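Entry type: protein chain
Record version: 2
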Amino acid sequence: MQQKTNTIEIHRSQLYWLYIQSFVLSYIGWRIEI
């Protein structure tokens, strides 16, 4: 049971990190275009 909860937490943090990365990349790309 503990292992299952831990896996869900890791998955959530990975999605959060991917969201931040895509936001930063789009922001940098927007700055380069201007």
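Comment: The chain has a mean pLDDT of 85.
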